[in-house]
UniProtKB/TrEMBL annotation:
One of its GO terms (cellular component) is ESCRT I complex. GO terms for biological process: endosome to lysosome transport; protein transport. Residues 14-156 form the UEV domain. Residues 267-330 form the SB domain. It is found in: Endosome. This is Uncharacterized protein.
C-alpha cells in the first residue's frame, strides 16, 4: 500500500505541467528515473520520494525528485538519515547525496565520506557513469561505506575484511579511500607539527644571528678603537723619539737602561733636588697604599700608626732637605 502511494507521487510529479514541473525534459529520462526509483523503494522501504527545489553551487534553482529517509546500517550502528537528489541530467550525472544531521548528532570531524555540511561522496559517485550505476546501487554503496566508517558513531570493532576473492572492486576502492584519507590527515598533522618546530627553530636561529651580529658589531667597534689607540701611541712614541733625538739623549739608555739616566741634571744640586722630590712622591704614594690597606682590613690600626709615623718622619726629612737645597741655590 505504501509503495502504491509512492508510485502515485512519482507519477504525479513526472507529468506535472505547472510552474512546479520537474527539470527533467526528456520523456525517456523520466521513465528511466521512474524505473530506478521504484527499484530503490522496493528494497529500501524506509525511503520516501518527494519534490523539492535544489539550489546548485552557481545559484541555479531546479525542481528535482528526491528520496529521503533512514538507512539501516547494522544492528550495532545507528540509523543514518540521508537525502538523495536525482540530478536533472541523470543518469549521465551522479545524484547528490546529503546526510541530514541535527544538534544532537553532529557529523564526526575529518570523516572520509561526509563533510561537515553533510555532503557525501564515495568512489561509487566519483566513478559514476550512465551504464552499470543506478539509485539502488548507490543506496547499497552508502550502507557499505557507513558500515565501514559511520558518520555519527565511532565503532570500537572495525568490520573485518572479506576474502579478496569475494570483495568487489568498489568495496576495495572505498576501503582504500578511507585508509588514504586518514593517512593524509595523520601526515598533515605530522607536517604541521614539524612546521611549527621548524618555525620555532627559525625564530631561535634568528635570535642567535642577531646576537652574533651584535657581537661582531661590538668587536668591530673595539677593533676600530684599538687601531685608533695604537695610532695615538705610535704618534706619541714618534714624538718622544724626536724629542730624545733633538736633545741628544742616549736612546739605548732611555729604552733599555734606567729611565732616570736618560735625563741629565744641570749640577749636583739639581740632581739632589730631583732625588728628594722623587723620595717625597714615593713616600706619599706609600702612605696612600697604607690608607687603602687599613680600609680593607689588611693591616691593623697599630701597625698602620707605626708605619705612618716612620714614613712621615722620612717624608719630613726629604722635604726639609729639598727646601734646604732650594735655599742654597738661591
Amino acid at each position: 500500500m505504501a509503495l502504491q502511494s509512492q508510485v502515485q507521487i512519482i507519477d504525479n510529479a513526472m507529468f506535472c505541467n505547472t510552474e512546479f514541473a520537474l527539470s527533467y525534459s526528456d520523456p525517456d529520462q523520466k521513465w528511466l528515473i521512474r524505473r530506478h526509483l521504484l527499484s530503490l523503494l522496493r528494497e529500501f522501504s524506509s525511503l520516501n520520494p518527494a519534490i523539492d527545489t535544489y539550489i546548485h553551487n552557481d545559484g541555479a534553482m531546479v525542481n528535482l525528485l528526491k528520496v529521503e529517509g533512514y538507512l539501516h546500517i547494522s544492528q550495532s550502528l545507528p540509523l543514518v538519515h540521508v537525502i538523495i537528489w536525482v540530478h536533472e541530467h541523470y543518469p549521465y550525472v551522479a545524484p547528490m547525496v546529503q546526510v541530514k544531521m541535527d544538534q544532537t548528532k553532529p557529523i564526526r570531524s575529518n570523516h572520509p565520506f561526509v563533510d561537515p555540511l553533510g555532503v557525501t561522496t564515495s568512489a561509487y559517485l566519483h566513478t559514476w557513469g550512465p551504464f552499470g550505476y543506478d539509485l539502488l546501487g548507490l543506496a547499497h554503496n552508502l550502507v557499505k561505506i557507513f558500515s565501514l566508517d559511520h558518520p555519527f558513531y565511532i565503532a570500537n570493532d572495525h568490520p573485518t575484511m572479506s576474502h579478496p576473492s569475494f570483495v568487489s572492486k568498489m568495496e576495495c576502492m572505498d576501503r582504500l579511500w578511507c585508509r588514504l584519507h586518514y593517512d593524509i590527515i595523520a601526515l598533515r598533522e605530522n607536517t604541521n607539527y614539524e612546521v611549527e618546530n621548524l618555525v620555532t627553530l627559525e625564530n631561535e636561529m634568528r635570535m642567535r644571528v642577531d646576537f652574533a651580529d651584535n657581537i661582531i658589531i661590538g668587536l668591530d667597534h673595539e677593533k676600530t678603537k684599538l687601531k685608533q689607540r695604537v695610532k695615538e701611541m705610535t704618534d706619541e712614541a714618534d714624538i718622544l723619539i724626536n724629542w730624545l733625538t733633538i736633545n741628544k739623549v742616549n736612546l739605548s739608555v732611555a729604552i733599555g737602561g734606567i729611565v732616570e739616566d736618560a735625563f741629565e741634571c744641570v749640577d749636583d744640586n739639581s740632581k739632589n733636588k730631583m732625588e728628594c722630590a722623587a723620595e717625597d712622591h714615593a713616600l706619599e704614594d706609600l702612605m696612600y697604599v697604607l690608607d687603602d690597606a687599613l680600609g680593607k682590613g689588611i693591616v691593623s690600626h697599630d701597625t698602620y700608626i707605626k708605619q705612618v709615623r716612620v714614613l712621615a718622619r722620612e717624608q719630613f726629612l726629604a722635604r726639609f732637605k729639598f727646601g734646604r737645597l732650594n735655599t742654597l741655590r738661591s
